Amino acid sequence: MLGADHPDTLITRHGLAAAYEAAGRTEDALTEYEQVANRLEAVMGPEQKLTRTARDDLERASRTLRQR
């Protein structure tokens, strides 16, 4: 209803990525974090707090995956 690029939709998708990560589904989390971060950057800009948070979470998930 709100659309794929609406901030509330992107925040919800970010929560989904966090849930994937918490469940040990790091690859799924990484994919979702990357998509959300890219969309947030396009919609809200690279310096917006949500964008930076998504990028930070993407980097953390990426490090976790590399450590395996």
Output the number of helix runs.
Answer: 3
H and E string: HHH
Helix content: over 70%
**Distance N terminus to C terminus?**
39 Å
What is the total tally of β strands? 0
- Molecular shape: globular
How is the main sheet built?
none
Q: Detail the poorly predicted runs.
A: none
The Rg value, from CA coordinates, equals: 12 Å
InterPro entries: TPR-like_helical_dom_sf
Protein name: Tetratricopeptide repeat protein
Biased composition (Basic and acidic residues): 49-62
Pfam families: TPR_12 (PF13424)
Write the layout of secondary structure elements.
Blueprint: H1 7-22, H2 26-44, H3 49-67
Protein name: Tetratricopeptide repeat protein
Organism: Nonomuraea thailandensis
Pfam family, one: TPR_12
What does this 3D model show about the protein?
With 68 residues, the protein is an all-alpha fold. Helix content is 79%, strand content 0%. The protein has 3 helices and no strands. The longest helix is centred in the middle third of the chain and has 19 residues. The N and C termini lie far apart (39 Å). The mean pLDDT is 94.
